[in-house]
From TrEMBL:
Pfam families: Glycos_transf_4. Keywords: Cell membrane, Membrane, Transferase, Transmembrane, Transmembrane helix. PANTHER family: PHOSPHO-N-ACETYLMURAMOYL-PENTAPEPTIDE-TRANSFERASE (PTHR22926), UNDECAPRENYL-PHOSPHATE ALPHA-N-ACETYLGLUCOSAMINYL 1-PHOSPHATE TRANSFERASE (PTHR22926:SF3). It is a multi-pass membrane protein. It is found in: Cell membrane. The chain crosses the membrane at residues 6-26, 46-64, 70-89, 101-122, 134-155, 162-180, 186-205, 217-233, 239-260, 291-312, 318-337. The lineage of its organism: Bacteria, Bacillati, Bacillota, Clostridia, Eubacteriales. This is MraY family glycosyltransferase. The keyword Nucleus does not apply. It comes from the Bacteria. Its main location: membrane.
Amino acid sequence: MDSIKILTIISTIISFILTPFIKKFAVRVNAIDVPKDTRKIHKKPIPLLGGMAIYVSFLITMLLKDGKLAKSEIGILIGATIIVIGGLIDDLRDIRPWQKLLFQVSAAVTLILFGIEISVITNPFPSDSLFLKLGWLSIPITIFWVVGITNAINLIDGVDGLAAGVAFICSVTIFIIAVLNGRREAALLTAILSGAIFGFLPYNYNPASIFMGDTGAQLLGFLLSAISLMGTIKSATAFAIAVPILAFGLPIYDTLFAMIRRKINGKPIMQADRGHLHHRLLDMGLSQRQVVLIMYLTSAVLGGISIIAMQISTIRSYFLLTIVVLVIVLAAWKCGFFEHRE
């Protein structure tokens, strides 16, 4: 555990020191987010590419850890690099959604090639068999999970410090779960990631002087989705579905509601709108900081529930997930989250 603490501190320091240099580089290459429509919260141009500080910090710290990199760790680093390349291109030139998806799927397939996949899940039904083997379904399910979480984190990146802070809370949650499960590798990875995010947050919190851009938001989503496959495991190979779904609850539900909202209102699934939770809270007259703190608290509560789900029986964890989902959906319906807003 001492080595984990040291590596976390190193990761934090590297990210904190590197971010100002990344900011200068972003200005030099004209990687600037200029507000052009009503969905943009900021009023003046802000440099992008902040995610590079998180990526470099994570990469360097991983290379500094004791011993050789495990096969799974190499796969995660390669996949992360693929995501960062796609994110950089998007931040510099703007690429189409299908091109983003291509990079995301490639990174997910890389994880599978290096042995990181959802091959078995815990059985939610009374049975002699504790686990359900997925067989060939493990490939599409793993890809769906990785791509889904990658985009979910990216979609909530709409207010200063929101995506980075929520990702930090999710990372700490997975760290705690990994420690409780004795998954040292996953605990180490989330600790290093938490440090990298923490070092970046002072520059990204309102008023932000630099944004993560797609480079950072997609990177965080990818890393969290990949590490969660290693850390939220109750037994040798079983993936406890309820745990990570609760841990990543805020970005997952916000993304699902956006998809449902657009479908109900006859809008393209990929068409952006002002219906996300942070937009609605801002429209209620709350400040950016108030919105971020509310969403931090919500994410932390869901993270705490996921830790509880980890400690109880499989059937009870699925029941807990069902109750939470029903409450959130009902609340979203009452608050008009499925109504379209331009």
